Automatic annotation (TrEMBL):
This is Methyltransferase domain-containing protein. It comes from Candidatus Chloroploca mongolica. The keyword Transferase applies. Residues 55-147 form the Methyltransferase domain. Keywords: Methyltransferase, Transferase. Pfam families: Methyltransf_25. InterPro entries: Methyltransf_25 (IPR041698), SAM-dependent_MTases_sf (IPR029063). The keyword Methyltransferase applies. One of its GO terms (molecular function) is methyltransferase activity. It comes from the Bacteria. GO terms for biological process: methylation.
Length: 257
């Protein structure tokens, strides 16, 4: 992994770089590493009436969303993630759920996946680091790889008005998308109470694993504790200062910049 990839990976997982080797252990009890697949499933079911031919999930983690799409709608797809342990888990879940033939998972940088060219009918992307650049640049790079009739599903958090969180505003998100030739089709915002409960559940699962690791590696115990605290702080930020949700975009017909 290059230095930049490591930096972006650490940001996307809210971890210090030194802790990255332990992250698969810390996250072993979670399948979905972002929000639950239910909201995006509702959004896609409401808006996409034909199975997209080429679905790609950039930073698919352990494949939770793609596996649900394959199981629920019979869609085929491909997921890439830079963490080999996550891809191994994605393949295992796909087998367990009986959808391994419909899905292809690969350890790969998302930028390299886009650079290989081709047109996708549906791209799934969580904006949680600058692995593809700042928001507008990331959207532009993805939009350039979406077929004219295709869609982009983005999960992200934006700052609630009046809050100075280190997050973009709703207007910045929508303006950035518009500027690169994307039109908002529909959205599914998450209930803050649900985000809080689900976030706390995740933190408790992580805390248990952090305690295990602190016994095995006492020299890193402060770092494990700091990781749990960082997850708690992230949870507070998402529940109190942000709106979290899924936005479905279509190509607007104008050329993506
Ligand atoms: C917050 S997690 C979300 C995972 C998944 N989308 C989900 O909802 O379960 C972000 C994911 O992006 C992956 N990631 C970070 N940088 C990446 C890169 N440069 N290329 C591919 N994947 C990357 C991480 O390994 C992680 O699995």
């Amino acid at each position: 992994m290059t230095n930049d990839q490591t930096k972006h990976l650490a940001a996307s997982l809210d971890a210090e770089e030194a802790l990255l080797p332990f992250v698969p252990h810390l996250l072993q009890d979670l399948w979905s590493l972002g929000f639950s697949p239910e909201a995006p499933l509702r959004l896609l079911e409401r808006n996409l009436h034909e199975a997209p031919q080429h679905v790609v999930d950039l930073g698919c983690g352990k494949g939770a969303l793609l596996i649900h799409l394959a199981k629920r709608f019979g869609w085929h797809g491909r997921g890439v993630d830079i963490v080999p342990e996550f891809i191994a888990e994605a393949r295992r879940y796909a087998n367990d759920w009986g959808v391994a033939d419909a899905l292809d998972f690969e350890v790969k940088d998302m930028g390299e996946e886009l650079a290989k060219g081709g047109e996708r009918n549906l791209v799934l992307f969580g904006f949680d680091s600058e692995a593809l650049g700042e928001l507008q640049e990331a959207l532009a790079r993805i939009a350039a790889c979406v077929a004219l009739s295709g869609h982009l599903l983005v999960d992200l958090a934006w700052a609630r008005s009046g809050h100075s969180a280190d997050l973009p505003s709703e207007a910045q998100v929508l303006d950035s998308a518009h500027a690169v030739g994307l039109r908002l089709v529909d959205r599914e915002m998450l209930d803050p109470a649900w985000v809080a409960t689900e976030g706390s559940r995740h933190v408790e699962l992580i805390r248990r694993r952090a305690k295990e690791l602190a016994i095995r590696y006492p020299e890193h115990s402060a770092a494990f504790e700091a990781y749990v605290m960082e997850q708690e702080a992230e949870n507070q930020l998402l529940t109190k200062e942000a709106h979290c949700g899924y936005l479905l975009f279509a190509r607007s017909g104008q050329k993506a910049r």
